[in-house]
Amino acid sequence: MSIDLPLxxxxxxxxxxxxxxxxxxxxxxVGMLLPAGDREEQAVMVASIGPFWDANETWLVLGVGLxxxxxxxxxxxxxxxxxxxxxxxxxGLMLRGAAFExxxxxxxxxxxxxxxxxxxxxxxxxxxxGFMLGxxxxxxxxxxxxxLFSLVVAGGLCGSYMLLGxxxxxxxxxxxxxxxxxxxxxxxxxxVALGEALAxxxxxxxxxxxxxxxxxxxxxxxxxxxxxxxxxxHRAGTRxxxxxxxxxxxxxxxxxxxxxxxxxLDGSL
Length: 269
Prior knowledge:
The chain has 269 residues and is an all-alpha fold. It has helices at residues 5-33, 39-49, 53-56, 58-70, 72-81, 83-105, 109-137, 144-172, 176-205, 213-246, 254-268.
């Protein structure tokens, strides 16, 4: 039996992009949430991603490398069309790296400066990635509507990363910061829902043949699958909360605060 190498490399690229989105998404989200905390909370937030943030970016390198090796022609077309947002993303990632290293040694207002640069680098990289996603969905078409749609998708991706960052902080912190993270998660979820609604409205009713019946029929099965996955995740989350309520952890432990935080977040959703 012959192996379909294009399909294999496509699956590997998809896996790499998914891993990057989840793993680097939460530390980008923590970076964008940094100004919402006070000085002590900012130190805790940065420390929570310290051992992981640099390694998480490796998945992006793997995905782009697979694109270059397996589909060199597509690599030239895609990166040629996305040259400016890719450059903006790299600038943002470099700012994050420099700010993360220098803020530890900085004192006074210099540390505040590096904190803001860490936030700006996280925001710029996230916005650029969302803009690239929007441009890819629209087939790199020119026009005000297509650019506006890409900006909407970019905003939705920033909200998604903030949601991931907030849930990471719920998992890794406790006390006042954990309670703040629960509020940030609710706000991030609302942002994601708004971005999804706007994006789907444009796709279904917008320009470019996206609203025709063939397109909707082609994606009907995928939409039903996504709906089924979402319903299954909701049921699993509900059952998990019931288990947590029935088997309370040791009183006063860190797991106690974690269970309460997740129960409150799940109940609010």
